[in-house]
TrEMBL record:
The lineage of its organism: Bacteria, Pseudomonadati, Pseudomonadota, Alphaproteobacteria, Acetobacterales. GO terms for molecular function: phosphorelay response regulator activity; transcription cis-regulatory region binding. Keywords: DNA-binding, Phosphoprotein, Transcription, Transcription regulation, Two-component regulatory system. GO terms for biological process: regulation of DNA-templated transcription. Residues 131-226 form the OmpR/PhoB-type domain. GO terms for cellular component: cytosol; protein-DNA complex. InterPro entries: CheY-like_superfamily, OmpR/PhoB-type_DNA-bd, Sig_transdc_resp-reg_C-effctor, Sig_transdc_resp-reg_receiver, WalR-like, WH-like_DNA-bd_sf. This is Response regulator transcription factor. It comes from Neoroseomonas eburnea.
């Protein structure tokens, strides 16, 4: 039997936590722009899915008492068609992985997979299934005239620095961009600890945009919390 406790990731992805390796995996994801929230059990996971509209669910199967991953996936499928990725420990055999896939999991990842590959695979699942019902429509960042066009409402005019900053974040597709990169690309100078130019730029942008449009990632930099599509063409 396997335990299936859970975490919820920004883009509201739910990730099960059952041992230190998976907690480390969750930390790696958080450092790459996902916000992680813990739920204590499979039952709590199901309630979280029922109460919200997550983009995907990640279930981690462990070696303590509780539901096997495949059974948790079946229960999830009875509740929702939300994309599901299973995190499998090294001790788990091919039979368990096949059971999870046949139960309705969209992907199986192994504990210890490089974080950059894990994030790429999760994003690939999200691309395959498309956005969930009610997902945010993307903003459009237009180089001609340095404009940001919201799904609804008036366009936002940007300064050159504001435009370049948002273009960098848009290219990262929700992953954080560090202050060093932002300082070099936007202000053409290396970043120093006492340098507040990037932070000041973010404060100005937050006065023009919804307050939660740009996430601060502690000890890293910034990431977009809303989808933004970039175009060179005039719109």
């Amino acid at each position: 039997m396997h335990d299936t406790s859970a975490l919820v990731l920004r883009r509201h992805v739910i990730l099960a936590v059952d041992h230190d390796d998976v907690r480390t995996f969750a930390g790696d994801l958080a450092r790459r722009g996902f916000t992680v929230t813990v739920t204590p059990s499979a039952e709590a996971l199901m309630r979280a899915v029922a109460d919200g509209s997550p983009d995907a669910v990640l279930l981690a199967s462990g070696s303590t008492s509780g539901l096997p991953a495949a059974e948790a996936v079946r229960r999830l499928r009875d509740l929702s068609g939300v994309p599901c990725v299973v995190i499998a420990p090294p001790s788990e055999g091919i039979e368990e992985r096949i059971d999870a896939l046949e139960a309705g999991a969209d992907e199986v990842l192994h504990v210890g997979i490089p974080p950059i590959e894990a994030v790429a695979r999760i994003r690939a699942v999200l691309r395959r299934v498309g956005p969930p019902a009610g997902a945010l429509a993307p903003w459009r960042l237009v180089r001609a005239g340095r404009r940001l066009l919201p799904p609804v409402g008036d366009e936002v005019r940007l300064t050159g620095a504001e435009f370049e900053f948002l273009a960098l974040l848009a290219a990262a597709e929700g992953a954080p961009v560090d202050r060093e990169t932002l300082s070099i690309e936007v202000f053409r100078r290396p970043w120093r600890t006492e340098d507040r130019a990037v932070d000041s730029l973010v404060r100005r942008l937050r006065r023009k945009l919804p307050l939660d449009a740009i996430n601060s990632i502690r000890n890293v930099g910034y990431a977009l919390a809303v989808p933004v599509e970039f175009t060179e063409a005039r719109v």
